[in-house]
Specification:
four-stranded antiparallel β-sheet; Methylamine Dehydrogenase, Chain H; 15 strands; mainly beta
Length: about 170
């Protein structure tokens, strides 16, 4: 699965034939794709479109669109990028770029459970294996926010060098 931010497409690559098997049109500038733990859906962060789109893997069609409106944040700053799911698949955490927030989403209802203010320009994140915390890379503030997912609060901020972008955890 490959995103094309210029063409606003997700391309489904057949590895056996090494060809594009299908394409799904998305909203503007799809940046990140993440499969749900149950393997039935893929969630696409459409950065410039300011939303996440849910694609059904069986038919490769967009079945749901999730919009974001963090309180007190100008709409043009809401730029979804990184997406991660808790291991049970019940919660998605989405980094919202220049809004300086992350969103927690109930995956069953697609409703935003809440927003958490983090450092400057969060792009990517990881969730700890016990599903208790999210670690968020904040590119503009040069740090990482540790979020308690139960309380939806930042519990620690750690300096992380210039322009942190990605996060990976040892399983």
């Amino acid at each position: 699965l490959v995103t094309s931010e210029e063409d606003n497409l997700v391309s489904w690559i057949d590895l056996a034939s090494r060809e594009v098997a299908a394409q799904t049109e998305t909203d503007l500038r799809p940046r990140h794709v993440e499969f749900t733990p149950n393997g039935r859906e893929v969630w696409v962060a459409a950065e410039v479109g300011q939303k996440v789109q849910v694609i059904d893997l069986a038919n490769k069609h967009v079945i749901e669109t999730i919009d974001f409106a963090p309180p007190g944040v100008l709409a043009y700053k809401v730029l979804p990028c990184g997406i991660r799911f808790t291991s049970d698949g019940k919660t998605a955490v989405v980094a919202l770029g220049r809004s300086d927030t992350i969103a927690l989403i109930d995956t069953a209802t697609r409703a935003v459970k809440g927003y958490v203010p983090v450092g400057g320009r969060p792009w990517h994140l990881a969730i700890t294996p016990d599903d208790s915390r999210a670690i968020v890379a904040n590119g503009a503030s040069d740090d990482v926010s540790i979020i308690d997912l139960a309380t939806m609060q930042v519990v620690q901020t750690i300096p992380a060098g210039k322009g942190p972008w990605g996060v990976a955890l040892v399983p």
